[in-house]
């Protein structure tokens, strides 16, 4: 099976939409990446300058291992966060999911889980991925709840895996498979393993 990476809008759930990350999203993302509280959630210990940020943005269009989307509200077209797939592995049909709700007014409204759920549906149904996972810092209970609500399961814990500048923190490995029943997984295995 060939994995085709398309840079296209994912869609909308009526409350927000996931749109291809473009130039109009760069400035707010730059501010969020340099916000000390948000940077800690992303395990970033140093601020980035605008030139570095722009190089990162320019590199996105040529990369085959990641896809980025902005989360925009439907009513105001307000950019409230980003969600992305990275380390996309076409051979094993898996990718890591990350999310950042940067707009503080949007926190606590369930938008994170809905964005992960919409992206998960897109990754499985349009990109043909089989497994999605996320490495969540153990202290980030909001992210853990969002992934659990979107159907991700706790698969493991990497003890004291990340140095945060003042302490080590555990990583929770959250994962979701495209086939959640044994019958579907078996049917897929038969098709893949025993094709003529």
Structural description of this entry:
There is one protein chain. The protein has six helices and eight strands. Mean pLDDT is 83; it is low at 1-5 and 181-196. The chain has helices at 26-33, 36-41, 50-60, 111-125, 141-149, 182-193; strands spanning 11-12, 16-20, 67-73, 79-89, 94-101, 131-137, 153-163, 168-177. Strands 1-2-3-4-5-6-8-7 form an eight-stranded mixed sheet, with helices on one face. With 196 residues, it is α+β, with helices and mostly antiparallel strands. The protein has one domain: Gcn5-related N-acetyltransferase (GNAT) (Aminopeptidase), CATH 3.40.630.
Nutshell version of this structure?
By secondary structure, this protein is of the alpha+beta class. Helix content is 31%, strand content 31%.
Fourth-tier CATH superfamily name: Gcn5-related N-acetyltransferase (GNAT)
Report the helical percentage: 25-40%
Which structural class do you get from the secondary structure elements?
alpha+beta
Largest sheet: 8 strands, mixed
- CATH architectural label: 3-Layer(aba) Sandwich
State the CATH topology.
Answer: Aminopeptidase
Strand order of the largest sheet: 1-2-3-4-5-6-8-7
Report how far apart the termini are. 14 Å
Which range does the strand content fall in? 25-35%
